Amino acid sequence: MNDIPIDNIEPKGDQSVEKSNDQKRQQIEKQTVYYTPYEQLDLVSVDDETETIDLSQSRLNTFENFSKFKNLKSICFRNNFLKTFISDNFHHDKGFGSIVELDFYDNQIEKIENLNQFTTLQILDLSFNKFKKIENLDGLVNLKKLFLVHNR
């Protein structure tokens, strides 16, 4: 077998494909926002076209106003300190009209209301919270996955 030095091998594929993949990756990154526990939450500077926001472990105890995000599809509130699912900023006409995924895994939610307004919702995770009762699921006609593990 003949050994061919690695530095003599030419890359396969077209540079335009690689450039196209970079553009797609940049577009996805533009549409997704992640915050770490050590960053200050500042949604003002986030692009209005954002589709996904991940606020996991952001130490939140209230909701921000998401009204500027008309294309928001997915939002993650995992591992925060949220106690309720009720908020003026959490309304269909304030940016949640086309949400397909909500993730509230591991918060301190004791009361859930306003679920019926999320008619486009497909995935809802309310696992590891503190509520005893959930109502108004019949309005969630597009719901495909519901997670309620480890609640009261």
Structure description:
- The chain starts with 14 loop residues before the first helix and ends in a 5-residue tail after the last strand.
- A six-stranded parallel beta sheet has the order 1-2-3-4-5-6.
- The chain has one helix at residues 15-31, and strands spanning 32-34, 52-54, 74-76, 101-103, 123-125, 145-147.
- The protein is built from one helix and six strands, in the order αββββββ.
- The longest helix has 17 residues, at 15-31.
- The chain has a domain at 54-152: Alpha-Beta Horseshoe (Leucine-rich repeat, LRR (right-handed beta-alpha superhelix)), CATH 3.80.10.10.
- It is low in regular secondary structure and 152 residues long.
Structural class: little secondary structure
Low-confidence stretches: none
Shape: globular
In CATH terms, what is the fold-level topology of one domain?
Answer: Leucine-rich repeat, LRR (right-handed beta-alpha superhelix)
Q: Give a count of the beta strands, DSSP E runs of length 2 or more.
A: 6
The SSE order reads HEEEEEE
Q: At the first level of CATH, what is the class of one domain?
A: Alpha Beta
Radius of gyration from the alpha-carbon trace, in angstroms: 20 Å
What count of helical segments does DSSP give?
A: 1
Question: Considering the protein shown, what is the CATH homologous superfamily of one domain?
Answer: Ribonuclease Inhibitor
Distance between the termini: 66 Å
- Strand order, main sheet: write it out: 1-2-3-4-5-6
Give the SSE map:
Elements: H1 15-31, E1 32-34, E2 52-54, E3 74-76, E4 101-103, E5 123-125, E6 145-147
Parallel strand pairs: 1-2, 2-3, 3-4, 4-5, 5-6
